[in-house]
């Protein structure tokens, strides 16, 4: 009897211990859930974005060709940080046109475009996303100083600048210039002109394509955005009326120009300041201040194979030469007859990053901003003048090269699959 009683006491003690462990485990799980919920709630204002119930941290999809290094991992984490200035601008306008500024490493240029954006009417109503090609501390500091709107930074984690000794950067085994891969026993596929890849050059196209896929499909702040997104670069001076004008153009596009896929702040001829007519203008899409919506992005994304295989390192020439022509109908953009943005850079993407060598006249820009450029100057009742015969790349153009390496083609296609 004593032995049986002792056994029952042990069983009872064991059950109490098991119960205590289960209660403790459940408590820990509940605490973790509450902490996670409170953390996410504190980071993201539920009134800030449409559909914020779907905003969550997206695990980075690593392209099959690559393995991450310490810097690329840290950039992935930076890309998940919510926008800054939520305390200053807690709500965004429902009819906002999101602005994406993509940059490389020209801090003096960047400071000019940021200063011009600070004077844009309506800028506080929207979100500014700055997409960096790699990571450069001085560029980062300039963006961190923005106080005139919500701003989010994203960093291309697979930029050649992040990988100094292997693809997509340069490795010792890579072919150079016009090396014969068999004779030199090196790695690489030459372009149509016999030249091997230059990491600094191909990063231009890689960054643009990574950015487009990330902004449209990968960011919680924009992957449900139904409106237009405006894209500008670090050497674009933006007039005070640019935002109001692009809002008007985005609204008028479907009514005034059924063949217009986009809206533009500037003529396709970068030196032009516009015709100064009292009418709207339809022409081929320019690469200074262009905006389109998700429907157009889906059409572009569907042409990923053509974009990624066309032998030209310029994203815009690739679009003009192979993507737009593949749509099967004329592709126009709608703009005003007076420019609202100006390209001021005097040299290429990978030059002018040192302050004493910046490619500007006397280290500054002198762009006249008249009173008419400070307010919306587009009228909804204007007719549309269309340039039927447009200058550009004709059928059969094969590209300027620089994009022949099969590894670049494959990485480009991997970017297209990141969030699909």
Automatic annotation (TrEMBL):
- GO biological process terms held by the UniProt record: oligosaccharide biosynthetic process; protein N-linked glycosylation
Residue pairs linked by disulfide bridges in the UniProt entry: 175-186, 257-260, 308-412
Which positions are annotated as binding Mn(2+)? Answer: 235, 343
Membrane topology per the record? Single-pass type II membrane protein
Q: In which pathway does it act?
A: Protein modification; protein glycosylation
Record EC number: 2.4.1.143
**Cellular localisation:** Golgi apparatus membrane
Query: What GO molecular functions are on record for this protein?
Result: alpha-1,6-mannosylglycoprotein 2-beta-N-acetylglucosaminyltransferase activity; metal ion binding
**Catalytic function, reaction form:** an N(4)-{beta-D-GlcNAc-(1->2)-alpha-D-Man-(1->3)-[alpha-D-Man-(1->6)]-beta-D-Man-(1->4)-beta-D-GlcNAc-(1->4)-beta-D-GlcNAc}-L-asparaginyl-[protein] + UDP-N-acetyl-alpha-D-glucosamine = N(4)-{beta-D-GlcNAc-(1->2)-alpha-D-Man-(1->3)-[beta-D-GlcNAc-(1->2)-alpha-D-Man-(1->6)]-beta-D-Man-(1->4)-beta-D-GlcNAc-(1->4)-beta-D-GlcNAc}-L-asparaginyl-[protein] + UDP + H(+)
Cofactor(s), names only, from the UniProt record: Mn(2+)
| Keyword NADP tagged | no
- Write down the superkingdom of origin: Eukaryota
The record lists substrate as bound by 133
Q: Keywords in alphabetical order, please.
A: Disulfide bond, Glycoprotein, Glycosyltransferase, Golgi apparatus, Manganese, Membrane, Metal-binding, Signal-anchor, Transferase, Transmembrane, Transmembrane helix
Lipid metabolism as a keyword of this entry, yes or no, is: no
CC terms in the record's Gene Ontology section: Golgi membrane; Golgi stack
Q: Which coarse location class applies to the principal site listed for this UniProt protein?
A: Golgi
Q: Report the Gene3D superfamilies cross-referenced here.
A: Spore Coat Polysaccharide Biosynthesis Protein SpsA, Chain A (3.90.550.10)
Protein name listed in UniProt: Alpha-1,6-mannosyl-glycoprotein 2-beta-N-acetylglucosaminyltransferase
């Amino acid at each position: 009897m004593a032995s049986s009683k002792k056994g029952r006491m042990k069983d009872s003690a064991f059950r109490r211990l098991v119960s205590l462990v289960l209660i403790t485990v459940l408590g820990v799980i509940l605490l973790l859930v509450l902490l996670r919920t409170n953390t996410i709630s504190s980071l993201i204002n539920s009134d800030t974005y449409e559909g914020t119930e779907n905003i969550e941290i997206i695990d980075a999809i690593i392209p099959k060709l690559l393995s991450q290094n310490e810097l690329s991992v840290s950039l992935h984490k930076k890309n998940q940080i919510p926008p800054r200035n939520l305390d200053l601008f807690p709500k965004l306008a429902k009819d906002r046109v999101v602005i994406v500024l993509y940059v490389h490493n020209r801090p003096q240029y960047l400071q000019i475009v940021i200063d011009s954006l600070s004077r844009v009417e309506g800028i506080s109503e929207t979100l500014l996303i700055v997409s960096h090609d790699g990571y450069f501390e001085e560029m980062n500091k300039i963006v961190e100083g923005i106080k005139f709107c919500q701003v989010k930074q994203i960093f291309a984690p697979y930029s050649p600048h992040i990988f100094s000794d292997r693809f997509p950067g340069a490795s010792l085994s890579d072919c150079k210039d016009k090396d014969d891969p068999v004779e030199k026993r090196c790695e690489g596929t030459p372009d149509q002109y016999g030249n091997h890849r230059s990491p600094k050059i191909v990063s231009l196209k890689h960054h643009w394509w990574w950015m487009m896929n990330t902004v449209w499909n990968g960011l919680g702040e924009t992957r449900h955005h139904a409106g237009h997104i405006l894209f500008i670069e670090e050497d674009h001076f933006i007039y005070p009326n640019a935002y109001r004008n692009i809002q008007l153009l985005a609204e008028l596009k479907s009514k005034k120009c059924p063949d217009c896929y986009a809206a533009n702040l500037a003529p396709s001829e970068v030196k032009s300041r516009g015709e100064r007519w009292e009418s709207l203008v339809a022409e081929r899409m320019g690469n200074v201040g262009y905006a389109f919506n998700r429907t157009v992005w889906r059409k572009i994304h569907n042409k990923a194979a053509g974009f990624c295989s066309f032998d030209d390192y310029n994203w815009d020439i690739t679009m003009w030469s192979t993507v737009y022509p593949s749509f099967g109908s004329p592709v126009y953009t709608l703009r005003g007859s007076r420019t609202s943005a100006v390209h001021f850079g005097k040299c290429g993407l990978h030059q002018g990053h040192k302050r004493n060598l910046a490619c500007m006249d006397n280290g500054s820009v002198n762009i006249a901003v008249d009173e008419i450029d400070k307010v919306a100057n587009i009228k909804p009742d204007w007719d549309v003048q269309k340039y039927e015969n447009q200058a550009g790349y004709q059928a059969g153009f094969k590209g300027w090269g620089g994009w022949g390496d099969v590894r670049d083609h494959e990485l480009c296609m991997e970017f297209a699959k990141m969030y699909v």
